[in-house]
Write a structure and sequence with these properties.
The protein has helices at residues 7-31, 38-49, 52-58, 79-90, 103-116, 120-127, 130-162, 174-199, 204-231, 249-258, 261-277, 288-295, 299-310, 314-331, 340-347, 352-363, 367-377. Helix 2 packs antiparallel against helix 9. By secondary structure, it is mostly helical. It starts with 6 loop residues before the first helix and ends with a helix. It has 3 domains: 7-231, Rhopdopsin 7-helix transmembrane proteins (Up-down Bundle), CATH 1.20.1070; 246-311, no CATH class; 316-378, Homeodomain-like (Arc Repressor Mutant, subunit A, Orthogonal Bundle), CATH 1.10.10.60. The model is unreliable at 241-247 (pLDDT under 50).
Length: 378
């Protein structure tokens, strides 16, 4: 039996091996309780297995084993739901996992596996039928719905951590958002290309270039997701349901809005005092729970007051004090011996990038430009 290895088939084989190895590594890390990467590992493996059908066709294996054409490895109903569970696992809402999103994928796999064990003629009839085409399209629609749910989950996660943490490094999960968007665009572009290829007589050279490019993109996505998954920490919910089981957020909001202005102003003044005078903002790991314990106010209630009466979230509120402190260091001689990074750490920022982002958001200029503008005035 002779196999013709092309660049395309080699790339697909490398993708399959890479995905399986990285997937096993991620699952092993989860089992050792070092990272919450079980579902990411499963996602990576499934993503790699989708290339099996292409490998079978490229190596002409169907000439000798025709049934291999019907391997149940498209996972159109499964990929994005598994990734959605991974996002839930590492997000602030990890206690509310929705396993039911996997049910359609399980039904799909059982159905396709049953077709694989039919005769070749029966399997071909089933795959070429209108109902199977409709089933596949429904799978694509379901995947889009899950992607929308994933974006919604990430958005709610980002809002919650900004209300609870003063430093957001490795907590915002921006890479998850970009990865989800990237893989959605990749699949959308691929489907459109194949659609036009069916409608029009597209040159074989163009299709070959497209498939090779697609394989390179897939290799990049698998490596990127695996690397980020290894470095991604799970984000802890600070205001858990157990701590607030007798206090609902709606009830707290009603109480806050019914409270007299003098009472709210007293809480805000106490907040300002412990943050500014005690310089709590210099603690890079400061959370809303730390502050609430200092002033004797429930953390969820304090979060509502900061949002509704001060007009910002906890992260923005603390960063405003840090920016003001960094301005003083940039202006005064006390900060003349410090680098920009040193000033950032001295003011309470956890990284140079977060310092630049907060400073520019507050002053519309970078710390370096701010220092230059002050020097010109003097």
């Amino acid at each position: 039996m002779e196999h013709n290895f092309s660049l395309q088939s080699i790339l697909d084989i490398v993708l399959l091996v890479q995905a399986v190895l990285f997937g096993i590594l991620l699952i092993a890390l989860d089992r050792k309780q070092q990272r919450n990467t079980f579902y990411l590992g499963v996602f990576i493996i499934l993503f790699g297995l989708t290339s099996v059908t292409s490998i079978v066709e490229e190596l002409n294996l169907t000439n000798h084993y025709p049934k291999l054409e019907y391997l149940p490895f498209d996972f159109v109903w499964t990929l994005f739901p598994v990734f959605y569970l991974y996002v839930q696992e590492i997000s602030i809402f990890s206690n509310h996992k929705k396993y039911y999103v996997l049910l359609p994928g399980l039904v799909d796999f059982i159905f396709l596996s049953s077709l694989f064990f039919l005769s070749e003629e029966a399997a071909a009839i089933a795959y070429d039928s209108f109902l199977y085409g409709l089933f596949f399209i429904c799978g694509i629609i379901y995947s889009v719905i899950i992607v929308i749910k994933t974006f919604s989950l990430i958005k709610r996660h980002m809002k919650s951590i900004r209300d609870q943490y003063s430093s957001l490094e490795y907590k915002e999960m921006k890479w998850v958002k970009y990865f989800t968007l990237g893989i959605l665009l990749y699949f959308s572009f691929g489907l459109l290309t194949l659609f036009f290829a069916v409608l029009k007589d597209v040159a074989d050279d163009f299709l070959n270039i497209f498939f090779i490019t697609a394989s390179v993109v897939e290799l990049t996505l698998v490596f990127w997701a695996s690397f980020k998954g290894i470095t991604q920490d799970k984000v802890t919910l600070l205001i858990s349901n157990k701590r607030t089981e007798d206090i609902k957020e709606g009830t707290l909001k009603s109480e806050v809005f019914r409270e007299k202005d003098e009472s709210i102003e007293k809480i805000i003044e106490s907040l300002r005092k412990v943050i500014q005078e005690d310089q709590l903002f210099k603690d890079v790991n400061l959370t809303i729970v730390d502050v609430s314990e200092k002033i004797g106010v429930h953390p969820r209630k304090l979060s509502i007051i900061i949002n509704s009466h001060i007009g910002s979230n906890f992260n923005q509120y603390i960063n405003n004090y840090r920016v003001e402190q960094s301005k003083k260091l940039l202006i005064n001689d006390s900060g003349s011996n410090l680098t920009i990074e040193g000033i950032a750490f001295e003011a309470g920022f956890k990284s140079k990038s977060s310092f630049y982002a907060a400073f520019k958001n507050s002053t519309q200029m970078t710390p370096v430009n701010f220092k230059k503008s002050i020097s010109k005035k003097h």
